Amino acid sequence: MVAIHEGDSVQTRWIEGFSGMHKVFIGGRADRVTLDPGRLLPERNRYDNEARTRGPFKTWKLPAIRFFGGFDTERPQWYVVPVAGWNNYNKTMAGFALYNKFIPNRDFEFMIAPMFAPRTGDVVGSAGMTWTIYFRASPFHHIDLSASVKHYAYDYARVRFADSETVFWRYVSQPAAARFVFRSKDHAAHKRSYLELGNVSTWQDESLYDGVQVRKENQFRSYQFLTFRHRNERKLDPYQVTARMERGEGFVKGRAAGRYIFSYRDGEKGISIRGGMEAFLHHDTNNPLFNLRLSSNPGYYDYLYAGTFLGRSETSGIWSQQLMNSGGGFRILSAVGSSDEWIAFMNLEADFPGRIPVSLFFDVGSYSGAWDDRFERQKIVYDAGVSVKLLPGVLEVHVPLVKSADIKEALELQESSFANQIRFLFSLEGMNPFRLRDQAFK
Predict the structure, then answer these.
(1) Residues 15 and 100 in one domain
(2) pLDDT, tens digit, 9 for 90 and up, residues 34-65
(3) What is this structure's pTM?
């Protein structure tokens, strides 16, 4: 440790290694103190190795603004890149992303990505931050405290059927969570477990009837959740189990699910088995938005605004066929399997070996309404078909070829053509470079 006054070294102290906190007293005049000025020790962040002896924010340094990324360890780094986006309502959006995330992970990370949408004439985009707290001796390896927000248009429609003018409908989603990551006893086993407690606040424009007329009004909702997840990320035969409780206005639901992959010899592909059950523990709402479903949700059922949809509110056309992996995981969209009590499901998927980006899928499940003796319904429903995985987890196309009788009948009543039954997954989250970095380094 070196004490410096007006650019000159006035005192040097060698300090033995220690754990925790240790006070060192420097005599004489000094305007700043520096650790390891000769850069003899390997360290990823050197910008906290210097402190001024007077004034507020003694260790703070003005960050350097760089394009895309960099590895300068002498001062904080903020990066900026141009970004663009598109959805069916805001249309083309352009802006920039400002962030301090890079390699390696930092204890405090943020990203702000505002964009301007000329069609809607407003600023949209997203922002988020994460603060990671590490522990030396605790059942938890670290805690991630996170908060984020995103704001976009989600529809372009009339307020009343008689209106000639269409207006934009917007939403804001604001999740916040504390993730407690358990300490692994065997790092070589690639086992990871965490407990996450969080809240999602949403504000969305909705049409409400006030007793006289229908009008557009911004509505606030809040949801709380508790999730436990354990996964083994080994190269061969990885698996994970998840348990989740979620509370909203008028309901409490629970979910338990698991997935196991029987890997082929190369470890890159395999046969996946996913199954679980979801049920309401308390249900006092007439809003079908919160129902449990065997089908993977389209955009208009994503009430937490967790997915990224190109046409979130579309009910026809190509954008209505986008799905997010949720619910019972059925690849076909059908009203069959919607329940305000419980659902149970299993999803099988077998990859073609080699470089062929194709797999066969079979989804099977049941739901509470199927066991109501007042109706003649199949107790077990299913679908099966072929998936084309252009980018696994990012861009996939699902083609259903076989359906159970109830699902087939429901689709015929809707006059749904074969082409309309094809669905696709487009998940920007799956190609988020920061999420990939976290999976590799945390």
Answers:
(1) no
(2) 887 777 777 767 777 788 878 787 777 778 78
(3) 0.87
